[in-house]
Amino acid sequence: MNDPLPALAQRILTDAGARRRFIVAIAGPPAAGKSMLAEKLRQLLDQETGKACAAVFPLDGFHFDDCVLEARGQRNRKGAPFTFDVGGYAATLRRIRQGDEEVAIPIFDRSMELSRAGAAIIEPRHRIILTEGNYLLLDKAPWSTLRPLYDLCVLLKAPEDILHRRLTQRWLTHGKTLDAAENWIATNDLPNIRHVLAHSGQADVVFNAA
Q1: Where are the domains of the chain?
Q2: Is the dihedral angle over the CA atoms 84, 23, 42, 162 positive or is it negative?
Q3: What's the CA gap between 132 and 145, in Å, rounded?
Q4: What Pfam families does the record tag this protein with (predicted)?
Q5: What's the mean per-residue pLDDT of the chain?
Q6: Which residues contact 52 (CB under 8 A, 6 or more apart)?
Q7: 5-208 adopts what CATH topology?
């Protein structure tokens, strides 16, 4: 099968034209490969233009901290739609869309299970922003209010068995026992996967991950 990413990169460059900012939303369930896709696209776009024209803006930096989730009794659902600062993400994305100043963004550090404020900078030279996260295309508020901020929407899909296998490996790598990983997937990851697949709105491009 031909790699679809070069064609997507060309479409982005064509659609972006001479715009100061062009925002691509990449959504999909946990472990579908959003971060990897965004990074590969960034590299392709930079290669095609011969300059650093693209940057990645992850939703995961807007996780509520564990202390907030503990106080709300939601620690066992960390990663669910209601455990993100959607307003903070939207406000930052609007600043980024302006395109005329540096914008510091938070990055989620999975090894520490927390977000690091100001861990990356989006600069005015970054005309194309690849923002990625599970819930960017959800069809209900507050997530649905983000839709006008995107110029192109990409949705990744994958069968549950593939996502389950990837998630098991992820949690084992991060120190969970097999039983703990399986419990977390069953009670948290799988509900989130099913929610994304059932309630994501229409995308301009759909990839079926293998």
Answers
A1: 5-208
A2: positive
A3: 16
A4: PRK (PF00485)
A5: 95
A6: 46, 125, 126
A7: Rossmann fold (3.40.50)
